[in-house]
Amino acid sequence: MPYSRISLLKGKTQDYLRALSDNLHRALVETFEVPENDRFQVIHQLAPEELVFDRNYLCGPRSDDYVLIAITAGRIRNTQHKRAFYRRLTELLQISPGIQPQDVMVVINTTEAEDWSFGNGIATMLPAAD
Description:
Blueprint: E1 3-9, H1 14-31, E2 41-46, E3 67-73, H2 79-95, E4 104-110
Parallel strand pairs: 1-2, 3-4
Antiparallel strand pairs: 1-3
Helix pairs in contact: 1-2
């Protein structure tokens, strides 16, 4: 049940955004134990002054194709799953829409089951209240 926030600079085509979205989800399904129909994403396209990032820190250099993916996951995954996800994600995004691996930054946060409501005003992931 991850929720992904994808931030990038404005100006990408609908095809580019679709490939980014589809390949993020594909990597989650293939390596992060996410069901195929569990897809919740928000894409933020920002002006250059609204997406501030160091172009050379650690894995740079970064280009204007830099994308920050913040994933809120419902449970902890082990290091092996995370490493596999990072690798697969960058492989897929390099193929389509053509994002270089150094331009992909990922931050994963985890939550408790009680922190999610998928609708109807209930804590969906918890047993029904008495």
